[in-house]
Amino acid sequence: MFLKNLTFEKFFDVLKLCVSARTLRRPRGYIRINIFFIVLTIIFIFVIASVICYIKRSIYDDNAKFILFVLAVCCILGYSKIILKNFASVPFYAEYQRLMDWIEELQQIEDDNEIIRKIFKEELTKAMKYSLMCFEGYFWLFIVCSSSAECIPVFEKDTTMFIPYLDVKSYKWIHHICDALSFFGAGTWNVFADSGAVIIGIYIIFFMRIIKRMIELLNQDGIMEKYPDLLIRILRKHVEMIEVLNIFNESVKMLSFIQIFMSTGLLLMFIMIIQVQKNSFMNYVILVGVTDQLGLLCIFGEIIRTESESIFTSLYLTKWYDLSVRNQKILLIMMMNSYKPFGLKAAGMIDVTFMTFVQILKLSISYSAIILTLSEM
To answer: Distance between CA 319 and CA 310 in Å, rounded?
Structure first.
């Protein structure tokens, strides 16, 4: 647990690093680490070119191993996915910056209402805790996946890339080192790049829970007499939630689309690898890593959708009949705004939900079986 007992300031620096890794831009008030990620992008473009060279050679090589050929295709998909997601996020740097500013402001809120202040403190503490847990789990998962991916070409005594002007047989050790560095670099970079949106998403989810808990306060006897402006406060937070959700959805819409599209291809390839090598444990580890990326995105979309629905339910279950006519109208406005659930949409079209994840899994399994059947004919 290398991020245990981290202060919010240090945690926020981690978030800035993650956003920089995704947008290739320098967050306000942070070091120019984006230059490193720009250089890394250029390096991985050359890595992709080297893998393409290997694939071209394998097509005309009768002794080429099918497992390495498929792994090389997976490498291209994986490396390209990282780069494309970064390029897709560059235009939305301003949205990421606004969301980071919002999180920082959220942490600094000192409400004069003791109950609301307590709710904010509890939920924001949970948000930071779960963000760190998610980051660490994601990090170690991809370290294991990267190591497992490197083991495949080592055990097969071959490589997944061809470096021009370097003979593979004479300099195989150089190719293996480049393989290992590219696998490890891609895995680590992917963790940092994805974690920015993940952390922001977690804070949005817990902010929605703050609003839900504030709404539930309305059912307490005498609460409106004690805090007559409570409903107005809830309304303001609710409007803020809608605005933040729209910004977040805008910032990740293309990223989500690329993730879904490329992960479908990766799942298809790795399911094929597993069907060819059913006894290889490493293949299953890599498949878990690939599935985890897509699953995490879809689960996030599902949670956000569920939380928005629960806010509407909480509003519906309030003792509205005990409120004044003015407050009833405010409650009605909030219910109208919450009637349609909020959720993530990939490219503004595809609902990012758990059902989407299940459909992609079914599609990948079906198509991999068809491709393998046709290849054996």
So the answer is: 16
CA dihedral 356, 357, 362, 367 (to 10 degrees): 90
- Longest CA–CA span in the chain (Å) reads 84
- If you search the block for the tokens 């590219």, which residue do you land on? 182
Query: What are the tokens at 313?
Result: 């339910």
- Model pLDDT for residues 130-147, shown as the tens digit of each residue: 999 988 888 888 888 777
- Picking from 45, 47, 44, 72, the residue whose alpha carbon sits closest to that of residue 57 is 72
Cα separation of 124 and 150, whole Å? 39
pTM of the model as a whole:
0.89
Q: Where are the domains of the chain?
A: 8-376
How far is Cα 240 from Cα 342, in angstroms, rounded to an integer?
A: 13
Of the pLDDT bands very low, low, confident and very high (cuts 50, 70, 90), residue 49 is: confident
Beta carbons within 8 Å of 281's beta carbon, 6+ residues apart: none
pLDDT tens per residue, range 260-276: 888 888 888 777 777 77
